[in-house]
Amino acid sequence: MRTGLADEVRAWMFDAAIPAWLSRGSDRVHGGPEESLALDGKGPANSAFRRTRVCARQIYVMSHAALMLQDMPGRQAQADAARHCALAYFEHFAAHMWMGPDQGWLRTIAPDHSRLDGTLDLYDQAFALFALGWLFLATQDARAPVLAHATLDVVEARLRHANGLGFHHEWPPSLPRQQNPHMHLCEAALVWAQMGSQPRFSALADEMANLCTQHLVRMPDGILPEFFDADWAPMAGEAGQRVEPGHLFEWAWILAQHQKLTGQNHGPVIRALVHWAEQYGVDPLTQITFNALQGNGGVIDRGSRVWPNTERMKGWIGAHEILGLDPWPALAGSARLLLDRFLAPAPRGMWIDALDAQGAPSASQIPTSTFYHLFLAFAEMLRISPSPGTAGD
Predict the structure, then answer these.
(1) Three-class SS state of 356
(2) Nearest-5° angle of CA 290, CA 53, CA 107?
(3) Which residue, among 110, 94, 105, 3, has the nearest Cα to 48 in the 3D structure?
């Protein structure tokens, strides 16, 4: 079962998705990745903007793909194509989305590269760091660490919160405070920290992991709200009650990466996050991971996008590597769901991004941003799967 499922996932990644996005995922007129494609997968959707975070995510996908493909027999040409695409996206990224050492990365540009939204957003800075780290791993381009340090300079100088606990999620600052960009900042810092000789990013990863375990997660239950006040207490009212199970799984995986790197014990928090998200956030019959819950476990949004299901896979891999829990029932459930209900009905190498509360497709386009979630979760699954050609159960 494991080997067969891994073979399906590998085939989708490298025989379907990467070729499709190399051939149809770029703006051939203005450069950079398309923001989204039409549901038939034949051309771009009518998008009037390009987000920095989407370009960053596609730099990541193509960089990671190049690294995996270069170790696969007969795939060198495809590895070279993915690496070339990552570098082309980086040129576009640096030329049109970087506002300079005092301003960081903007939010959005128009297709013709004119600026639409120059807001300094922590989420975008985090994904820039993430992309730059993966680009450096794939290409050793010396510009990547220079821009990464410049990005962190801006984050520290302009977004650091006065109370010292994390950062504002945007500038000018606003409430509620958000856990999500801090999660991705931790993820990005870990990419750089895992290279070694990057003490600045190691310290940032430590800080974000400790912020999560000491201020964000409500133990012993493992509840992680989305929105907080200035001092990291959950916001009053409905906003403070929103919990997204995908983010609990995602944090569990990130904390597992941090523990593997540092030895710091996150086991109890990882266990609590995965247990709560699995108990309340997953339909055991359909294997769907819901979009949003209340803090008492009640379901707010029974629909499901691709990404909560990919994060369930990663969360269970983290629980497996740190706690020794069997990840395969959840991995098989979510991978089968993704392959059959989100990927198979879409054009080859593409996806249906969302199902409604009744399980019917509800997406109006194919968002490029989803590739990051699929590729990373599937790559993690392959990392712990039997090698091709070996006996599996």
Answers:
(1) coil
(2) 115
(3) 110
